[in-house]
Design brief:
Blueprint: E1 57-71, E2 74-87, E3 97-103, E4 112-124, E5 127-132, E6 138-144, E7 147-153, E8 162-172, E9 182-183, E10 190-200, E11 203-210, E12 217-225, E13 234-246, E14 264-276, E15 279-284, H1 289-297, H2 313-322, H3 326-340, E16 342-343, H4 355-361, E17 363-364, H5 366-379, E18 385-389, E19 409-416, E20 419-423, E21 443-446, E22 453-456, E23 463-473, E24 479-489, H6 490-514, E25 519-524, E26 535-543, E27 548-550, E28 553-556, E29 578-579, E30 584-593, E31 598-602, E32 607-610, E33 616-624, E34 629-638, E35 642-643, H7 648-662, E36 666-670
Parallel strand pairs: 1-10, 16-17, 23-30
Antiparallel strand pairs: 1-2, 2-8, 3-7, 4-5, 4-8, 6-7, 9-14, 10-13, 11-14, 12-13, 14-15, 18-19, 18-21, 19-20, 21-22, 23-24, 24-26, 25-26, 27-28, 28-36, 29-35, 30-34, 31-36, 32-33, 33-34
Helix pairs in contact: 3-5
Length: 677
Amino acid sequence: MFSFSFRHRLCLLAVFCTLCLTASVAQKAQPAGPVVKFGVIYPDQFTSSTADSTASAVILYDYGEVTFDRNDNDLWLVSQYHVRIHIRKKAAYDRATIQLPVRIGHLGQHESVSDFEGYTYNLVNGNVSTDRLTKAGHFTEKASDQLMIEKYTLPNVHEGSIIDYRYTVRTPFSVGYNPRTWRFQQDVPVKWSEYRITIPDYFYYKMLLSGYLRMIVNEQTKGKTHLLPGQDDVQTSVYRFAMKDVPAFREEAYMTMEDDYMAKIEFELASYQLPDVTGIRRKDFSVGWDAFDRTLLNDADFGGKIKRTGSMRETAKALLSQQADTLSRIKSAYEFIRQNIKWNDEASLWSTESTKKIIDNKKGNAADINLLLIALLREMDIDANPVVLSTRSHGRINEAYALIKKFNYVVAQVSVGGKDMLLDATDPYVTLGMLPVRCLNGTGRLVHPTKPRFVSLLPLERDVEVYTGTFTLNDDGGISGKFIHSHGGYSAWNARRELAVEGKKKFLETIQKQRPAWQIEQATLPDGVSSSGAFTTDYTISIPEACSRAGDRLYFYPMLTEAHRINPFKETERLYPVDFGVPIEENFTATYTLPKGFRVEEMPKPVSMSLPGDGGRFLYHISVNAENQLLVTSRFILRRPLYYAEEYGALRELFSQVIAKQAEQVVLKRETVAETR
């Protein structure tokens, strides 16, 4: 993309590169960091102190530095790295093979790795032995037409070894102009991680710092460099960032993708201004959200696909003739696309196929399908617009930074009753106005030429499961009766999808596998896979050994097989939010007719527990009525899809209480019948 000619001398117009985070430019002293010389190892360095005794390795030193250079008429990014790792367990041996992807460009310009040096150090009888990387340890593999993999395998690695390596990556701007993401945090502890970058004021980069850890060094200074021939020195912005004693990143329950949480810095070139033969050459990629919106709307593979199109005109006329009101017309267009175009399981922001080809092939990616839906709605005189978002597996967006690469999906938006309705026609099992779980990721961006805005992706539906049982206990400890499991909202969506994919036989096999104690005598499943309403399954079951016996007493768990048994939150503290995706509600009610001659001797006490701010609730109650029936009610509600780290303690305790209470037993005692004379 970039190829610059510098034969003409022009006045320099500097554009200050600003950082999209608070850089410390004050006089406050910053830590100098450890003095680490490549290839110099001392015996005491083989004792790597870290609080994490389970770590398979410890990164002692991770250093990266990026500068800008020129070669003939081209600009290059030059990235230098130095890494030192203490290998503590066999599980970390693969870290001794360093795999570096390099991109293949056009016109003979390629990314390249140079000056790779590596050593393995072992402590033998108190002395440091050295093994150097040889040519035999270097391999090159072709991963694709656009990517090569350079592999370097360091020799003689054992438990206790230290590996030390450094290398340089040179990237021509024609191949890539964004510095690679720098990750301070990794899956093993990092003693010191430092990143430096010097950016000439020709370029305006957006830099996004994310994560939940504190930066120990965060500074910006000014400098100068001579980059372009025939030009004066240009000012530079020099950044230095560092973290110390970074804990290993551990994946925990209910998280989106790990990159949402790891400490890192990302880059995206927003604009540049460079001398050219005609003056100053400027280009804006996405300086702000206005430019972001224009870029998408002016792109043939995005904005070009939502214009009225003759390909959909006859379809629009037919649908309009069949429906009288706006909501019915929206639904008819939505169902038409869902029934005629199958999703190929690819998330995409861009529709690269022609409308005719998408219709003829009857399949497409997410953008093909949802941009076509927007075009059809517009052809029906319905104001529909695209909402771009990032799926849960792609990472969250940040409303402060207009980074196109952060988005990978698009859905349709219409207004119904003055409220946004979001439509995704890729999924045949969601209801109208309901997004698939993969799309429930914070915020999306409504792309509009005059009224763009951010749109909440919070779900309007909950994940609801209702269990209703009517059972009879016999004096041998068996239980039999009717059990109804009703799914609502996202639970119904998931159940419909599973039934459609697996079929009834496999669906029931899965139920049986999850509840091995059940003997299913009869099961009634929904006849079809309608995408609306509840999904209800009815069972006639028996559990022969539901109760345990001890003398004249029976013991059983009143929640049967539906109790929560494992707390997903094992750590006492948590840095990251808990993201369930959707609000959750579980209701269990059961009536047990007790065997003749038995009475309830002991049963769990009732409990009512709430999260602060009405964020959730757990209710549990058991009683006995006049007909000697045991009535059980359990209600567990999480009213929000997202809970922040400061709410974690209360959330963890709520789950603990649920598990403890649902694990309590009911004790039945055989009554003593007085002998008659």
